[in-house]
Amino acid sequence: MVKTVLFLCGLAIVIGLILTAPLFTRLRRKRLRDRPFSSSWQQILDRHLPFYEQLPAPLPKRLRGYIQVFLVEKRFVGCGGLNLTDEMRVTIAAQACLLVLHQERFYPTLKAIYVYPAAFLVNTKQSLGTYVLEEKVARRGESWEQGIVVLSWADIQHDVAHWHDGNNVVLHEFAHQLDQEDGRTDGVPLVEHQADRVTWAQVFSQAYLALQQDVKRGTKTVMDEYGATNPAEFFAVATETFFEKAALMQRHHPELYAVLQHYYCLDPVSWRQPH
Ligand SMILES: [Zn+2]
């Protein structure tokens, strides 16, 4: 009898802890968000991240809070002899958090961010009929389903210095992380409502096929032609275009822009344009 009572009490405590865990996480994150933001981090945002000064209120404050959560919760690893600095960590965190500013999910499956000084070499295998071609290929970034993002710092610096060219390795790889949250790299992130999933499938498949045709014909495209590689790359490249070439995307691909606007709950077209 005593054993049964103890077991039931233990069970009740475990269930209680499971049920209240999200509440504790929210409270812990709120404390992190409310901490004073370091002035040296603020300088990094002001000097190096062109989108920051364009954000309408209350997004700059929210972004600063999210960066504080992200930098506490996520592990950064310097690779290839790189000594990680605050500039690197804040620059990466700011762009990663931009994608989840209205979702408050902080990449639950992301475990670590590996940063190389510049483009890094990876071993690849490609089937060519009966042959398998093995070669080393230089990469700017990678996103793995196991919750790992790999980035080149030289490319990150180049991308923030050329914000409106539509290429951004951090936005690209973290869009892949959003896509991979459900364990699949298929170009479809977690979308809550069934009706939104249907719209997503219609709009994305149509726009993806149109990009493939444009690339085949050699037509100039708003989105980088790398988006025609497969649906997963299409979503990642569409995300880069949405944030960096918002007005062009809205003009040329209004339906795609609207779906991304709904998904990210952000409207970069309305942000203050650079002077
Ligand atoms: Zn990619």
Question: How would you explain this protein's 3D organization?
Answer:
The protein is an alpha/beta fold. The protein has one domain: Collagenase (Catalytic Domain) (3-Layer(aba) Sandwich), CATH 3.40.390.10. It has helices at 2-34, 39-48, 59-73, 86-98, 153-161, 169-180, 194-217, 231-244, 246-252, 254-264, and strands at residues 75-78, 112-116, 120-128, 131-139, 141-144, 148-152. The strands form 2 sheets. Strands 1-2-6-5 form a 4-stranded mixed beta sheet. A hairpin with a 3-residue loop joins strand 5 and strand 6 (148-152). The protein is globular, with a radius of gyration of 21 Å. It starts with a helix and ends in an 11-residue tail after the last helix.
Number of helices: 10
The main pleated sheet reads as: 4 strands, mixed
What is the β-strand count? 6
Question: Which ions and ligands are bound to the chains?
Answer: zinc ion
Strand order across the biggest sheet? 1-2-6-5
Radius of gyration: 21 Å
Structural class, from helix and strand content? alpha/beta
CATH topology: Collagenase (Catalytic Domain)
- Gross morphology is globular
Question: What CATH first level would be assigned?
Answer: Alpha Beta
Work out the helicity level.
40-55%
List key phrases describing it.
single chain, about 280 residues, alpha/beta, Collagenase (Catalytic Domain), four-stranded mixed β-sheet, two-stranded antiparallel sheet, 10 helices, about 55% helix, about 15% strand, binds zinc ion, MtfA_fam, Zinc-dependent peptidase
